[in-house]
Amino acid sequence: MANNTLDQLSKKFSTVEELQTYCDSQFKIIQKLTKQLNDSKKEIDELKEKYIKLKEAKPSPEAIKLSNGSLGQLGVTDEEAICVMQLNFLKQIAVVRELTLEESKKVEIYVKTLNTIRNVPKKIELETKDMSNEQLIKLIEASVDSFDKQ
């Protein structure tokens, strides 16, 4: 078969120089495609490694502590804990690869939620039935002053 192909090529080209030019161009194409193939194989191997790392990713120790019930003792709400855990998980993903649009939107939502939770003014309940008007006015002034300092 190889002789058949060579015979056909020799009939196709009238001179040895034409055949040599054709062979050189074919060789360059083969080199280029081999390089692309090797680059693609490297990229596939890197992506496989990243996939394995993501698949084996475990929650951070902080997230485990928060999920084991120490939330109430720390004054952390369940919503805040969820936001922190999810943000930690997305951070681990971001270390390995760029976040997708959907993941980026999740980060934005969790950050906004966390900021909202953490910036809610704390309620102070006082028994005001037995307070005089002067005491009530002083209490309001103190509240306004502490609010201005923030």
What does the model show?
With about 150 residues, this protein is mainly α. It has 2 domains: about 1-55; about 60-120, no CATH class. The protein is built from 7 helices and no strands. The protein has helices spanning about 1-10, 15-55, 60-65, 70-75, 80-95, 100-120, 135-150. Helix 3 (about 60-65) runs antiparallel to helix 5 (about 80-95). The model has no long low-confidence stretch (mean pLDDT about 80).
Summed over residues and divided by their number, the pLDDT gives a mean of 78
Total discrete domains: 2
Amount of helix: over 70%
Strand content: under 5%
Globally, the shape reads rod-shaped
Number of helices: 7
Sheet with the most strands, sense and barrel status? none
Spatial gap, N to C terminus:
88 Å
Question: How many distinct beta strands?
Answer: 0
Q: Give unreliable regions as ranges.
A: none
Short synopsis of the structure:
By secondary structure, the protein is mainly α. The protein is built from seven helices and no strands.
Produce the secondary structure layout:
Blueprint: H1 2-12, H2 16-55, H3 61-67, H4 71-74, H5 78-96, H6 101-118, H7 133-149
Helix pairs in contact: 3-5, 5-6
